[in-house]
Protein: TTL11 polyglutamylase
Organism: Quiscalus mexicanus
Amino acid sequence: QFPFGRRLPCDIYWHGVSFHDSNIFSGQVNKFPGMTEAVRKITLSRAMRTMRDLFPLEYNFYPRSWILPEELPLFVAEVRTMKDSNPSWKPTFIVKPDGGCQGDGIYLIKDPSDIRLTGSIQSRPAVVQEYICKPLLVDKLKFDIRLYVLLKSLEPLEIYIAKDGLSRFCTEPYQEPTLKNLHQVFMHLTNYSLNIHSGNFIHSASANTGSKRTFSSILCRLSSRGADVKKLWSDIISLVIKTIIALTPELKVYYQSDIPAGKPGPTCFQILGFDILLMKDLKPVLLEVNANPSMRIEHEQELSPGVFENVPSPVDEKVKVAVIRDTLRLMDPQKKKRKDTHCILFLRDSLLRAVSAFCIIWSMKDKQHKHHSLKLS
């Protein structure tokens, strides 16, 4: 660490929040320029909508979304139209502040008129999405999956996904949303930072118990019930690839602005946190992408009022140490090819199909360019 500034060049630079050092002329940086902006809720929703308009069958894994306040009239009109065409439809929506994190400011509504039209919605834009009312439950609890994805490079496009992730549970038994339970965050919101304050939160002593478990333990449980775990993994891989493809055009603009081609500069890589919800039929749904997923491997425990200590978290340690270790091995400039990492490289043919789709989209977005291509190594 260089608390008072860096003096010597390094092979790998590990920035805490975002790419911010314009004086790096070589080596590798663990952040992409513009990534934090590209995965914000509004930006991500716009990118996914563009792709869904072009490829509706390929991009049906992201909830239908509207941007507030600019699309509030559109949201009201579309919901009214859908209700008129299907009077039995009783939707629930979730409102998420654009720059919010750790569940801050999120709330559920049953009707567009329930949106909190205060001054904050103007100064703090948000996204409103269809709420997934029929999630897969384990022990009667709703949960989501945090998967760690390494974007190793944009050119060539190279993506890795960790074999294991975290399953983060709500702390109250799930019930479908009603006007009476919309406010019960411990039932509807899977955010760890919210549920840890619940009296029902259980710190995990093993991989398959407690309020935070390994994803592999959930897969084992599903497999024992006869679920097609291989198809589930394939669907998740497809979701990750297509999401990265949707983000790539904007990331390229930021990258070329900060690190122009032909000038000395670093190369970039980044670990992303994908938050995914499984529906009752095991279809994965993308909730959001986190540019700065927490890599803490301990939690705070209150010994006495106001006195805390850090206690190791076996589940976090098992998953996150492997992610950091394999990322450093993959990025090690002295060892370009190692066979002992524990990550899964996406199937080449899947990536080729994804890049082909990207090239089509890129050319449609900018018809002035006559030819676009991406190299695969």
Remarks:
- Residues 229-258 form the longest helix (30 residues).
- Residues 340-349, 356-377 have pLDDT under 50 and may be disordered.
